[in-house]
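Lecture 7 notes: from sequence to structure.

We start with a single chain of 112 residues. Read the sequence below before looking at the structure.
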Amino acid sequence: MTTVSADNAFLPASLESTGPCPARADYLELRFATSVGHWTWCVPQPGSEPPDPEEEPVDRLAIAMGRYGIQAYRHTGEGTGTALPSAAAIPLILDGIPVRVARTLIESGRSG
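Now the structure, written as tokens:
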């Protein structure tokens, strides 16, 4: 596997489709399109909890492999920030927030 430099570690991704996760009926599959291929992520169905007003607003998300599996993170001009719980990230993604996916997830063929 080739080493990815920091400037192209994340690729812009657009949410192409959603549907039931083939592996778990109680999960939702998100399918993203990027310039180098497609990538899917199965996540728990989003709840109806309103966002916490104390939370810092999120303008862009990055999806990458974290310590405990694939995770969504705040993403700023300075790089990847704090992780977000899936329950907070999924509604943002479904509402159209800009998303970037780690190139290593796409190139490895590893879906979440």
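The two ends are 19 Å apart (CA to CA). Keep this in mind for problem set 3.
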